[in-house]
Every structure is written in structure tokens, then in C-alpha cells.
């Protein structure tokens, strides 16, 4: 049985999809906290070089991506109309964050094609979550 919002039924799977989005965003927040709390001196040399090459704006974009994304996912679960906007901001921040891998020469020189797999997955999932939220708003499932 589906819930009804504004005359349109909300499918049962909506809550599961919103919970999955929330779980993904929570994982991002945990990963961010782990990254910013690590002692760079304990990292292997290759990771330490990446750490040293990362500009402050990349870390700031990471923070915006995960924390705004978390709020957006909470709003999605609560079926609030602001969710797609917050998730779009998060997605833009992800693009800004990962653009550093291409535009910062020190990072670009340290980045292998294998290193680009996870950012690609993160971009795809971020887009999918935003698209789900936008489609949910268009369907009248968000209030």
C-alpha cells in the first residue's frame, strides 16, 4: 500500500530508496571525518604526497558535499521539497572537489587512472540520488 501525498500515491519503495541515499551520505560524512582527523605523518608516502598536494578549497568542497548531502538526504527521507536543491548543491561540490584531480598540477601528476574510479562512482551515485529527489518532487511525493 502506498502513502498518498497531494493526491499522488508515494510508492512503498520510496522510503527504502531515501534510506539508501541517507546511508550513502552518512558514509561520506564518516570518510570525511576520517580524512580530516588523520595524522599525515602516519600515511604511506604516496598517500602523504596526495595529502600535501590537496588544496584547501578541495577539502572545503568535500565538507560541503558530504554535510549538505546529508541534510539533503534527511530532507528526502522527510519528503521535503528542499531535498533536490540541497542534493544539487552537494553534487556541484563533489564536481568541484574532484576537479582538483585534474586542475591542480601536483595532484594531476600523482593521480593514476585507477585513482579516478572511486570519484567516478561517487559522481554517478550523487547524480542518481539528486535525480531521484528531483523526480520525486516532480511526482508530487515531496511537500
Secondary structure: elements and pairs:
Blueprint: E1 3-5, E2 8-10, H1 13-37, H2 45-53, H3 56-77, H4 83-103, H5 105-110, H6 117-138
Antiparallel strand pairs: 1-2
Helix pairs in contact: 1-3, 3-4, 4-6
Key descriptive features of the protein:
mainly alpha, 2 strands, 73% helix
Give a concise summary.
The protein is built from 6 helices and 2 strands; from the N terminus they run ββαααααα.
Structural write-up:
With 143 residues, the protein is mainly alpha-helical. It is 73% helix and 4% strand. It has 6 helices and 2 strands; from the N terminus they run ββαααααα. A hairpin with a 2-residue loop joins strand 1 and strand 2. The longest helix has 25 residues, at 13-37. The two termini are 19 Å apart. The mean pLDDT is 94.
Give unreliable regions as ranges: none
Task: Give, in order, the helices and strands.
Answer: EEHHHHHH
SS elements, strand count: 2
Oligomer: single chain
The DSSP helix count reads: 6
Approximate strand percentage: under 5%
Q: How many strands, which pairing sense, and closed or not: the largest β-sheet?
A: 2 strands, antiparallel
Gap between N and C termini, in Å? 19 Å
Helix content: over 70%
Strands of the largest sheet, in order across it? Answer: 1-2
| Shape type | elongated
Q: What is the rounded Rg? A: 17 Å
Task: Give the overall average pLDDT.
Answer: 94
Q: Which structural class is indicated by helix and strand composition?
A: mainly alpha
Amino acid at each position: 500500500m502506498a502513502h498518498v501525498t497531494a493526491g499522488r500515491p508515494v510508492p512503498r519503495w520510496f522510503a527504502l530508496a531515501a534510506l539508501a541515499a541517507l546511508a550513502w551520505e552518512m558514509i561520506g560524512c564518516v570518510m570525511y571525518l576520517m580524512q580530516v582527523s588523520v595524522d599525515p605523518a602516519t600515511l604511506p608516502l604516496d598517500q602523504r604526497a596526495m595529502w600535501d598536494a590537496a588544496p584547501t578549497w578541495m577539502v572545503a568542497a568535500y565538507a560541503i558535499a558530504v554535510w549538505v548531502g546529508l541534510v539533503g538526504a534527511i530532507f528526502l527521507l522527510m519528503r521535503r521539497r528542499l531535498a533536490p536543491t540541497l542534493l544539487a548543491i552537494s553534487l556541484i561540490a563533489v564536481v568541484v572537489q574532484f576537479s582538483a584531480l585534474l586542475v591542480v598540477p601536483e595532484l594531476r601528476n600523482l593521480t593514476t587512472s585507477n585513482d579516478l574510479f572511486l570519484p567516478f562512482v561517487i559522481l554517478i551515485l550523487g547524480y542518481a540520488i539528486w535525480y531521484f529527489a528531483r523526480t520525486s518532487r516532480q511526482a508530487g511525493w515531496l511537500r
